[in-house]
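Most newcomers find our protein records easier to grasp once they have seen one. A learned vocabulary of local backbone shapes supplies the integers on the structure line. Here is such a record, shown just as it appears in the course material:
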Amino acid sequence: MKLISYNYRHTARITSEELVAAASAIKPEIVTLRESLEKKYETDYASCALPGDAELLERVQAVVEAKQRLNPSALVVVGIGGSIVGTQAVLEALYGCYYNEQQPKCKVYFVDTFDTDASYDIYLLVEQLLQEEKTVLVNIVSKSGSTLETQTNSALFVDLVKRYRPLDYKELLVITTDHDSVLWRSAQLDGVVCLEIPKNVGGRFSVLSAVGLFPLGLIGVDLEQLRAGAGTMLTECLHSEVEHNPAALSAALLNLHYYRGAVIHDTFLFSKDLAGLGVWYRQLMAESLGKMYDRSGGLVRVGMLPTVSIGSTDLHSVGQLYLAGPHNRFTTFVTVQKNRSNLVVPIFYNTSTESNFQDVFAGDSSVRDSSVSEQSFKDTALNERSFDDLMNACAQGTMIAYQKQELPFTHSVLPEKSAWYVGQFLQMKMIEILYFGYLLDVNPFDQPQVELYKQEMRKLLDHA
């Protein structure tokens, strides 16, 4: 099977020789990563061991099969940040962002923050299913087991399920957490099924652990293909010849442009279904690389601001800024070669049978923008063209415009939205961030400042 393709040609004044030289600085980290794989989960690089862990897959599949036998109509995944965004991203990439509206056998609801209306809306949907005597599973995901948002929503939804299924509600729960966390110990005492997150696998790197594998497996995602794609990309990203190592090249480009003033990294996805992957990557980059201190404890305050854009939607909102504003951005374009559907534009202009409605498209001067030529509206070039053709032309046109403005970018192409290629994308991006962190000389595995708001929040609650 093919690999995701990466085009690094449009790097704005950076030559191939400069890029390879910059990527070569990553070679010691490549060696470190290789050596860490032999130690499996004992190092900070533990997430890279996930795709090859056969025992993990066996444990998750056993729980999946047991819970599928309950014939669930819905799964509520309670978590926040890395405990939830990767799972949602993969689901939407493979099944579409309107998955629940497609009447699947098992709907999936993600509950994360304290937003009372958002949680209540899901609460009502779940309660309706329970009133209809349908089965609802609750998957609580938290590494520490003490995350306030997760504790709050877990209490809400466990109580709801317990009220309708008081005798067997524990069978409807699955806990995904660190071994011996507060949540783990509580679940073990109550006889609730637990899936372990390896201690050294951080939340934002955990999508290929039980965090993502259980809910995705429950709804039928091919876990073997997801992991195999990730494993294949892992091999590519360990290549010692950096000119053939996509993660090293991408990290080197980001680093070069960061120190040339590109303080923003925009992931520009030409597929709405892939928007969640952009959100997942946003957390991955921001938490991993936004650091106050370097590895030696020196004050540095580094980090690129990760943003997410969707084509062609955002070309009509922020495209003007991107093309005319300051050159402070590096862009990764992501396109899909083959989509699930094949919509074709109907013939909407017929010179012999014009109607008032058709005039809107055909060039009636009273309804069209005077800045657009009449011929462009009467041109039938759109007739019977596929939406794929139009989106591809839109993406290519955008990249040509970027190139003419000397805006640096790379282009990633997924041959299709399958578990194999999504697994590749996830793994490549995780290793890219590790290599970029190495170049920035920061620890990509911690997030100490995230605790600051939690500390202040607890003080407010304690004194309320």
